[in-house]
Design brief:
Number of helices: 1
Radius of gyration: 19 Å
Largest sheet: 8 strands, antiparallel, barrel
Length: 217
C-alpha cells in the first residue's frame, strides 16, 4: 500500500512546485513587460547563477541495451554556475559559455525504492538573441553512489559514472529571477569497472528557479 502511494505523493509535490512557478512566471512577466528587457544584459561574463531544479527520470530502452524501461526516480538538483565568456559568434546563435556545478539526490520509485547521491560538472551554452528567453544546451559528467546495484541486472557496482546532455530554456520573470525548464538524456554506468555494465538510460525533464547576480566576478 505504501509503495503504491509513494509515486502519488511525489507527483503531488511536482504538481505543486509547477503551480508555484507558473504563478511567479505570470506575476514576474507583468513587471518585465513594462520595460524593454534583454537577458544578454544580465548574462554577462562573471555572472553567477544560483538555483535548483526538480525532475522526474523515466527509464528508456530506445537508447542503449538496457533490459527494462521500468526505472523511475525523482531528482533534486541544486545548481551553481558562472558565465565564463563574453558573447561568441553572431546572429541567432550568438551566446556565451557557462560552467555549472550540480549536486544531486535521487529517490528511485521503480523497480523498487532506492537512493542515489552525487554530482556533475556541466558546460552550458546560453543563446542570447531572444530577449527575456534564453534557450540553452548543456552537457556534463559526474559520479554518484546508488544502492540500485547490485540488485538490478544492469549494474554490479554502487559507485557509478554519469553522462548527461540536453536542451533547456530560462525565462526571465524579473531582471534577476528566471524560470528554468529543460530535459536531458541521463546515463548511468560504471565504465566496465564491475562485472555488469549495461547502463541505465533515462529521459529527465526538470523545472526550477534560477537567480542571477551580474558582475559578481
Amino acid at each position: 500500500m505504501l509503495r503504491n502511494e509513494q509515486p502519488r505523493h511525489l507527483g503531488a509535490v511536482l504538481s505543486r512546485l509547477t503551480l508555484v512557478i507558473v504563478i511567479l512566471w505570470v506575476e514576474g512577466g507583468v513587471a518585465v513587460a513594462q520595460s524593454s528587457f534583454e537577458a544578454r544584459n544580465v548574462l554577462t561574463k562573471g555572472t553567477v547563477e544560483l538555483g535548483g531544479t526538480l525532475g522526474y527520470a523515466q527509464g528508456t530502452t530506445a537508447v542503449g541495451n538496457g533490459p527494462s524501461a521500468n526505472r523511475s526516480a525523482v531528482f533534486m538538483m541544486p545548481r551553481l554556475g558562472v558565465v565564463l565568456t563574453d558573447p561568441l559568434g553572431s546572429g541567432w546563435w550568438q551566446g556565451n559559455v557557462e560552467f555549472l556545478v550540480q549536486p544531486l539526490f535521487a529517490r528511485f520509485t521503480q523497480p523498487f525504492a532506492a537512493e542515489a547521491a552525487g554530482g556533475s560538472f556541466l558546460l552550458k551554452y546560453n543563446f542570447l538573441s531572444f530577449g527575456r528567453w534564453v534557450p540553452f544546451w548543456d552537457v556534463g559528467a559526474g559520479i554518484i553512489w546508488t544502492n540500485l546495484a547490485p540488485r538490478i541486472p544492469e549494474q554490479s557496482t554502487q559507485y557509478e559514472f554519469v553522462l548527461e546532455t540536453g536542451p533547456g530554456v530560462h525565462y526571465f520573470m524579473t531582471d534577476r529571477i528566471a524560470l528554468t525548464m529543460g530535459v536531458r538524456l541521463h546515463h548511468i554506468s560504471n565504465a566496465n569497472l564491475g562485472d555488469r555494465n549495461t547502463g541505465i538510460n533515462t529521459v529527465l525533464p526538470y523545472v526550477g528557479i534560477s537567480f542571477f547576480t551580474p558582475g559578481f566576478f
